[in-house]
Write a structure and sequence with these properties.
367 residues, alpha/beta, CBS-domain, 4-stranded mixed beta sheet, 3-stranded mixed beta sheet, 14% strand, binds zinc ion
Length: 367
């Protein structure tokens, strides 16, 4: 029911988004890989079991409705995805799971007006569907009462899409409406605290949902309340980290001075240097230009395998991302490498003036 942005740099173990035995690849739609989280089948099983014990002959109908809900959720995510694409943000994949859908973007939707449009696009799909289906009902049955079982089905689909659309517009994180609220707040004097305020409102809503669940005994509210509470907290924390990165320039974070090495330098001599210095990772030079980086991990690995006399070019990483001293570090959030693998030479006027390594990034990220 809610989309998620590209935060996987920090969310390495986020279950519904990871490739795992729980994920089933369904294929591509408009070039976007669509995946099913198998938690859905647990939900299907439970709902079918619960409904068949109450209304024994309703299984077929309940299964059809469940399927329709997940199609509606998928179309909702597709709405977010198309809006994101309109702003040239690629969508990595769409995952449907038991509590909704997630469209993962290759980068964060930054300007507030874009974020608002991308967030509204999902609910807009459901509300549009509800209106189209509603129009059909009005046309075939002007008294608004469904007369055939097909009309009944169309009526229920319209209702379900309307509920899905409106529910997602509730202005509480992690719902789409909460994201809209956050973006609106970010345009006011509350700018620096917009995420926190939106998250706290979301958590207040989650608590209210939980209490309502306890009073009414309505099972779904009790399942969703803790999920919403934690999701709101997580969104705020991720935004907090993002803003710390966005507020830091490479020159403020980099390690300096920095030792560089030639391609033929031996692995052993770099390890020896690293053991007596703060610097653990090295840019590798050929003449004036950076041709690779050697990380602490590859140095350790090479030593363990007895390659101390080999030249460093044999273990260097050829794919180098360099930064200018004035680059904002949130640029790094667009790379797909995890934070503990990022080693970035900072280059100014053709010279390596510093190095951003996992140590600096962890420091900014904070605890
Ligand atoms: Zn959504």
């Amino acid at each position: 029911m809610s989309e998620d942005q590209n935060h996987d740099l920090f969310e390495e173990d986020e279950a519904p988004q990871r490739k795992s035995m729980w994920i089933m690849e369904l294929g591509e739609v408009f070039g976007i890989p669509v995946r099913l989280h198998l938690s859905i089948f647990l939900l299907f099983g439970y709902v079918l079991f619960a409904s068949s014990s109450r209304m024994p002959d309703s299984s077929g109908r309940v299964a059809l409705m469940l399927l329709a809900i997940f199609v509606a959720v998928f179309l909702h995510e597709l709405g977010h995805s198309f809006a994101a694409r309109a702003f040239r943000i690629q969508v990595k994949d769409i995952t449907i799971w038991a509590l909704g859908g997630i469209a993962r973007m290759e980068r964060v939707v930054r300007p507030p007006h874009q974020h608002i449009i991308v967030s509204l696009a999902g609910p807009a799909v459901n509300i549009t569907l509800a209106m189209l289906l509603g129009t059909y009902i009005v046309v075939v049955s002007p008294d608004m009462a469904p007369h055939t079982s097909f009309q009944q089905l169309v009526f229920e689909l319209a209702q379900m899409n309307l509920i899905l659309g409106l529910f997602n517009l509730i202005p509480a994180l992690p719902m789409d409406g909460g994201r809209v609220l956050k973006s609106l707040l970010s345009m006011t004097s509350l700018r620096d605290r917009s995420s926190k305020v939106a998250a706290r409102i979301g958590q207040g809503f989650a608590i209210a949902m939980g209490i309502l669940g306890l009073i009414t005994g309505y099972f779904w509210l009790l399942i969703l309340a803790p999920f919403f509470f934690l999701s709101a907290e997580r969104e705020w924390q991720v935004d907090n980290i993002l803003s710390r990165f966005a507020g830091t320039k490479a020159w403020q974070a980099m390690l300096k001075p920095v030792a560089t090495a030639g391609r033929m330098t031996s692995i052993g001599s770099l390890v020896k240097y690293a053991s007596g210095n703060k610097q653990q990772d090295f840019p590798i030079m050929e003449g004036e230009s950076v041709v690779g980086v050697v990380t602490r991990w590859s140095l350790m690995d090479a030593m363990e395998h007895g390659h101390q006399d080999d030249p460093v070019f044999t273990i260097m990483d050829h794919e180098v991302h360099t930064l200018s001293p004035f680059d904002s570090l949130d640029k790094l959030l667009q790379t797909s490498l995890p934070i503990d693998r990022l080693v970035l030479p900072v280059v100014h006027k053709m010279r390596v003036v510093g190095l951003v390594t996992p140590d600096q990034l962890q420091e900014i990220r904070g605890s």
